[in-house]
Amino acid sequence: MATNISLVNTLNLEQRAELLRYAKDCAERISTNSLSDFRALLRYRDRAYQRQLNTTAEHIKAVRANMAGDARKIQDMTVPIIMPQIESAVAYQAGVYLTSHPIFGVVSYPANQNQALQFETALADQSIRYGWARELIKVFRDGFKYNFGAAVVTWKRTPLRSIVTDTNISAAGLAALREYSYGGNCIEHVDAYNCFMDMTVPPAQLHAEGEYFGYNKIISRVQLKRLFSLLDSQKTTSAADAFKSSFSGSSVDDTSALNYYIPEINQYLNLSQVQYGTSNWGQWMGLPGSAGKRMEYRDHYLLTHFYCRALPSDFGARGNQVKIYHAIIVNWQVVIFAEELNVGYDTLPCFIMQPYEDGLGYQTQSMLDNALPFQDMSSSLWNISLESKRRLVFDRLIYNPRLIDKKDIDAVSSVSRIPLRNASLAKDDNTMARAIYQIPYREDNSGTNIQMSEMISAMADQATGQNKVDRGQFQKGNKTKTEFETTMLNSNSRQQLCSLAIEHQFMTPVKEVVKSNTLQYQSTGKILNREQREEVNIDPVQLRQAILEFKLTDGLLPADKMLNANLLTVFLQTAQALPAVGTQYDIMGMFLYWAKLQGAYWLEDFKRSPDQQQQFLQTVQQTAAAQNPPEMAPAAPAAA
């Protein structure tokens, strides 16, 4: 039975006031300690990732000296273990999911190949228009840093202009601009520092079982103006109140979800002191008396997107069935947009990626957490050796303060002139020898420390399931090609395990929402298919009638598992020896399929047209005939 979709599914002003109170209650449900601990752990991980944990006075002093051009000061070293491992893991997952085009392929029955081509073409265009790959890479990176990578999937409409040829008589042949609205699925990465969610359910199950999810971001006056022009006018209200509302600015307070939190990560660039939204735009323009004539704008606004499962009666509306709502709130004071999501899926359009899922929810450690102790220990051993080098240059001394002034020997100079005080006290010629004594320098374990550091770095690879080859580095050892391929295949097993988890906990529900939105909102039009190199007519009616499913990304399984090259070689040799094999199987199709699995998507660029194929066959036949001329018939014997 068909279900009619309501065109106007919003809330009135009184109901929006109740929704605002409900959203604030959800944001404050996370206890002060829970949110503070969550943000503190994110901040700690980011500092470790960027090697910014060392804030000791000695290290900062050496860094400032180096920045000033004094290369003689030796900084403390943080061995780079975490960042290369995380970036290698992100690169692997990007290769699995994001290198194919389109990112989400479509498969259907042979009778629905035309509809599958339309669907795939539409998704490919949306992924390029809204930068899916860029956003998903950020989600992957958060997933491996925090074991928490959040994203939202929405249907976004963007006003665009196309350049056409003017058909008016007065300007015939000249270029003209035609405005149109483009709609497509938008996958947006969510900042983990500025989101709040239902923490009573596991992160990976938030979309299916969670009650609410929201996130804050700062936008300018112009961005808010543009947002109002893009939102559905039937569901948008209170624009003037939103522009006049006050925003207290960003904060370093990590205990409240009602502000925009900026973490202090890079100690050389402190953005937490930037002031947002605390001034009046009209006064800044020199219009202090314009309050009664012009809108009193702010420089910046805090914009909150809030998704929830709730009863209409929670907001004073009629009904006690659970529905999904989306609201946009400005400065936590005005609800400018509210709608009930009448869509084809029963989940929140908010998804959290958790590459390491063991049932402990938010307590599960990330890849960064597993590698961090090894980075700290390896750095400690390196810094012990560096401290020894510092002592080699600035060694310890014992001096007589009656004969030597401390400030004369503290000054670092290769040509220092050190005056001898109270020389009259000397009773013999050994006065200088008694004035100062250098403690002998010994460096017995420096080399051992470096070796231990390298061993600890190797332990970090074991903890994360990687090796040097994964990061593009040379791995010592003599191995045949087969042994090396087997080793690399086994080393990828841990990363493939993450890929399987990501596929079923994150990618599959994302693809279902993308499919549902496309079937519901996709408009008609012509879109260029980059693979087929032809225009495809998109007919949403045909798309809804077809049975379509997403196929798993080809990169999820190695190409050799799908079609082994050695097995294909044996099969081709067998087909050459036994013509019956070529009669039953498409040998050319097998080879082309294997080539495309290996990445030869450029094959279509060299495909011959039907005329060229016919000409090639004639050339082959003529060449064969010239090389093998027909045998001459024996001459008849002459008559006697």
Written overview of the protein:
The structure is a single chain. With 640 residues, the protein is of the alpha+beta class. Helices cover 42% and strands 15% of the residues. Strands 4-5-6-7-8 form a five-stranded antiparallel sheet. The chain has a three-stranded antiparallel sheet with strand order 3-2-9. It has a two-stranded antiparallel ribbon with strand order 1-14. Helix 4 (82-97) runs antiparallel to helix 11 (367-393) and helix 11 (367-393) runs antiparallel to helix 14.
Describe the secondary-structure layout:
Blueprint: H1 13-27, H2 32-49, H3 57-67, H4 82-97, E1 106-108, H5 113-129, H6 132-146, E2 149-165, E3 175-190, E4 195-197, H7 206-209, E5 212-220, H8 221-230, H9 239-244, H10 281-284, E6 300-310, E7 323-330, E8 334-340, E9 350-353, H11 367-393, E10 397-399, H12 406-410, H13 431-435, E11 436-438, H14 446-464, H15 481-491, H16 493-521, E12 525-529, E13 534-538, H17 540-545, E14 548-550, H18 559-562, H19 565-577, H20 579-584, H21 587-597, H22 610-627
Antiparallel strand pairs: 1-14, 2-3, 2-9, 4-5, 5-6, 6-7, 7-8, 10-11, 12-13
Q: Outline of this structure?
A:
The protein is α+β, with helices and mostly antiparallel strands and about 650 residues long.
